[in-house]
Amino acid sequence: MKDKLLKILDRKKILILGFGKEGQSSYRIIRQIIPESQIVIADKNKGAFSLDGFQNTPACKMISGEKYLEGLGKYDLIIKSPGIPSHLFPKDIAQKKITSQTELFLQLYSKQVIGVTGTKGKSTTSSLIYHILSTSFDDVVLVGNIGVPPFEVLEGIHDETKIVFEMSAHQLENISVSPRFAVLLNIFQEHLDHFKTYDAYQYAKFNILRFQKDGDYLVYNTDNPVVCGGVKNGEVCQDQIPLSLVHHKGIGVFGTADGEVLVNLSNEKQTVDFTKRKQLPGKHNLMNIMAAVAICRKLQVSLEIITRAIFDFKGLPHRLEYIGKYKGVYFYNDSIATIPEAVIEAVKTLKDVDTLILGGKDRGIDYSGLVDFLLNGKVRNIVFIGKAGDRILAEIKETKEILGFNCFRIKRFQEIGDIVLQNTEPGKICLLSPAASSYDMFSSFEERGGAFKKIAENL
Q: What is the reported pLDDT for 84?
């Protein structure tokens, strides 16, 4: 590993751009491989350098503040953190000098990588694939958007290591190498504050398959119009496994309305009954299961082992997570739901939602479909918060004067508790499924979900 990375990095003037978790791991690995090299680190946030062991030295220069992007042309290689938008850079810099941990990692290990992306479902699917593979193989790692920078596992990777990589659009944005196994679950409007246009966001997502070659594999959701259109119109690898909850013909992995999965691959045709699963409810999770089944069968894991592992899987927090019953009300935390499609699926899955909490940071996505769903739905109480909440509420009132449900506009997240107690019917559900980012009030969707749990537990 060190020799391969040394060839890429040696004798280059390197800038690490962004000094969060991924930037810090980049620094540690580069310093380990090339101890004498000068590394420059730049981050807009001055507080990023307040960590022990990092200080300005002849071998490590630090730049912070509003001018952190100045002078990029003097570097040979810029290792960019995912959260920094590429549109901030001149075109010649972006094309010739910018790379990332994801790109460097794929240059080294693409043949061992199972890459998973999608606007929604990628964390669950990545974790599920990792869980299944770990029951059959001794050497499996899970990296990427799940919270582990890929460089963190470099030293433990061997020729037989299977690498499950959850890939966000931000991580895919600058790559020129695709993983051998690519899973594309869905594409919806999201992250328009970063990509500026929906087309740019889609382009980044399709990088997961854009550079695949003969001998690579693509698993994709044919029910999602954007994914299906992109695969049909693009140059993609020959080995494809389509997934569908609608069509059940030909080679692929298919799901039925009641929760059965039909595995129809070149050498087998079997049906697995997942109707009694509890931890992964809903059609969206059935699609996640189908993707995991497709990948793990390609890797020669038996269907019996796959099925057992799926039923053993506990699910991830903040994803239709049941918190508990408090004051007669059932509480569910779906803080990860930052797009309208996820909210609609959550309400359909749970069925008895009486109070729904919507809103957060407004990133400019289209809420018209969610508005129509709510106006024609059975949710009796809707709580709106943040600028996204304001826009959804305004669109609802513009569409219909007399509403069949109660609307509550709150300024503080903590106000949710009183509204739930006073308005939610006992025996019904209160659901946090915001259809918006958490970054107006919280540092992450996890923090928002945690705050919601505390409100429920303290009623």
A: 95
